[in-house]
Fold this protein.
Amino acid sequence: MSLNSLNSQNHSPSTAESYSDSDSAMAESQVVEQYSPESREQVATSDQHRQEDDLSQEQIVETLKKTLERHRCERHLVLIQDFPDPDALSSAWAYQLIAQQYEIQCDIVYAGILSHQENIALVRLTGLPAKRWGVQTLKERDLSVYDGCVLIDNQGTTSQLMPMVKEAKLPIFVVIDHHSDQEEVEAEFIDQRVQTRATATILTQYIKAGLLQLNSSNNKHVKCATALMHGLRSDTNRLMQAQEEDFLVAAYLSRFYDAQLLNAVLQSARSKRVMDVIERSIKNRIVQNNFSIAGVGYLRYDDRDAIPQATDFLVTEENVHTAVVYGIVHNEHEELEVVIGSLRTNKLTLDPDEFIKEALGRDAQGRYFGGGRYMAGGFEVPLGFLYGYNENSQYAKLKWEVLDTQIKQKLLRLVNPDDNVIRTE
Ligand SMILES: [Mn+2]
C-alpha cells in the first residue's frame, strides 16, 4: 500500500507543516489560558489539526511496521544519492537500525563520492556504515542477493545505481523523502513530505514513535543520533529554516547525541581546491535582479561539493536572494563528464524545484535535469555528444564557453522575464 493517497487525504500541505507530536499539543493546551477567547478558538482548531496529524502519523508508523514485518529476515539495498549529504547518510543509517529489529539486513550504498569535507568527517568519525560502489565496479555487482530496494532522501533520480536496480527487477519497498516529485516511483510504502525540511526529521519521528528504542549507553545509537542532528542542522541551514517539528526532534536527539563529536565534524577544514572554486565563483559571478549566477569551469569529481559550497557563499552577498553556481565535473579517467549545478535561495516565494524545472526543462527521455526542496535545488546535465576530448585545451575552453552561455541564457530568461505587456501605443 502506498501512503501517497493517505497523505493527500489527511495532509494538505499546510497541515503537514503543522504536524506535531502529542508532547507539544500538551504544551500548547497549557498555554491556552493566556489567550483571548478568539485566539483560544484558534488554538482549539490547531489542536484539532494536531489530533488528525497525530492520527495520520500513527497510521504512517503502523504501515511502515507492517511493511517491515512482511519483509522480515530479508536483505535490502538502501540507495542514497551519488553525492550523499548528511541528511541522506544519517537517515539511511537510522533506517538500517530500525530495519535491523526485523532482522532485515540493509546495505547503504552510493555510486558517487563523499565530496564535502564535513561528510567525510561524519562518516569517518561516526563509523557510518555507507558503502561506495564506484562506477567502475558496478558491472561486477551482484544485485540478486537483494530482495528489494529502499530509497532514502531521494526518489531514484539522483543515483546512478537506479538503472541497475531496474534491470535487476528489484522491487522498491520503501521511499522516504522530502523532495518534490521527481519521477513516478512505485513502492509498498511511500512517505514523501515536501513541507518537511529534512528526512532526518521524518526518521527521528519514527524513532520517537517507538520504531527504535535509543539507548545513550549504546555507542552506535549515540553516533547515529549525532549524525541525525547533523543531517537535521545541515538541511535546515543550521536550524535557521527549522520548523516546530524539527526543533522537537532536535530536542529529542539532544538526549542522546554527542555534542563534542558533532563539533569535531563541523570543524573540518575546506581543501585548497574547494577554496579555489569558491574564488572562481566570486570572480565569474554576474548579479542581475538579485540573482547571482556563476560558472566555475572544470572541476575534479572529488571536488564536486565545492559547487554547493560556493553557492552557499554567493547567496550571502548584499542584495542577492538567489545564487546559482555550476561547472563541468570530470574524473581522471574521463569516463565521466557532466555539468553540475546548485541553487540556494533566501526568497520565500521562489520555489527551487519549479525554477530549475522551468529554466532547464527536460532531456530527450522527458526527465527533468534537476529539482529541489525547500530553499535549495540542483541539476545535472550530461554532456552527451560533447563528451571527452579535453586534452585539446582549445576545445575544452570552447566547450565550456558554449555550455556556460547556454546555461546562463536559460537561467536569465527566468531571471529577467519579458513583461509581455500588450502595448497600445
Ligand atoms: Mn534532505
